[in-house]
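Lab notebook, bench 4. We co-purified these components, and the gel suggests they stay together. Before we commit to crystallization screens, I want a quick structural picture of the whole thing.
Request: model the full complex, all chains together.
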Amino acid sequence: MKHQPYEFWLFERKTLSSDEARDLEDHLTTCDNCRALANAWTNIEDQILSASLVAPLPGFTQRWRSRLADHRRRTHQRQMSAVLFTTALGLVGLAFLFGTELLPLFQPAIPTLMVWGSKVANLVANLHLFRMIMGILLDASIDSIPLVYRVSLPLSLAGLATLWVVSINRFRYRRIRKE
Amino acid sequence: MGERANDSEWIHRAKQGDDDAFAKLVEVYQVPVFNLCYRMLGNPSEAEDAAQETFLRAYRGLSRYDPKRRFATWLLSIASHHCIDRLRRRRYPIQSLDELLPWQQKSDDTPGPEAALTVKEEQETVREILEHLGDQDRVALILRYWYDLSYEEIAQCLSISVSAVKSRLHRSRRYLAEQWMVRKSVAVGASGRCDEASAL
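Here is the predicted assembly.
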């Protein structure tokens, strides 16, 4: 038995012309298979068409607003991160570019810088040594010096230092006035 | 699900950055969008997430919306593609549709307890059969029967040709009818069995 085009038509019954509909009905009276298929589809179609729309829980719009706000916040954070990352990348790029360009210019100064560096290191080491020696001397002599000298000696040194500073200032002032 | 008079005004205002106007569109179209997501995904919480994401994508892509198209069709198109993407990514089996209880049926016009039980059972059968349809076939069927979209609109929605829509719908309908027959144990007479050789 020939089933084409009836197998197609039985799913499209509403769009058939009157001749096609009549041909289909004739076929369905003689073909059990197509009739069963047609009945099954009619049942299914009725069920689908009677099925109602399912609605979300109340507050859907409010939840959408929250989601939008969250999305905006995350987008802003992503943009900030992208800007920071790009800036950092640019700085590293510039440092690399200019570093390689400027390094030859500093090449002759490197030995001088190294000499000065060692001098500074020596000075710091000497100062440290001087402080240690003075500490040892004071520790050793503090008990053998009488109390009167321990008080009067720093006072005298302080007075002499003051006198020295004042004298230098006065000489400088007079010289300026003469000029 | 026709275009409402205020839609174009709200769309225009939303395009200019008015969130309240877009929220009105969300309010109006939440049910059709959610229903499509639910019918596709079969899980209310996932459908909620998909529907929310659909509106977010619509909001972000509003400048690309062509006013010549129906806004509802455009939204359903976004929802369809999003649901199909989700189903592709999904690694676990589809959950049962019995989770409908905490969610709302929009209308309840069932006749009486016994008849209601029969109707519910038959609708469950349809849902179960629908779950086993391919994603692309299912979405075409849903758009056709739940939203009454024309073949052209479905084709536009799914970015496929009209003949592909017809082909998918025919395949879906045939599959549904055959599965219905299997589940209802419909006996077919031997004389009427399709003889493929003679059909050709």
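Chain A has a mean pLDDT of 86. Worth comparing against the SEC data before the next meeting. The longest strand of chain A covers residues 54-55.
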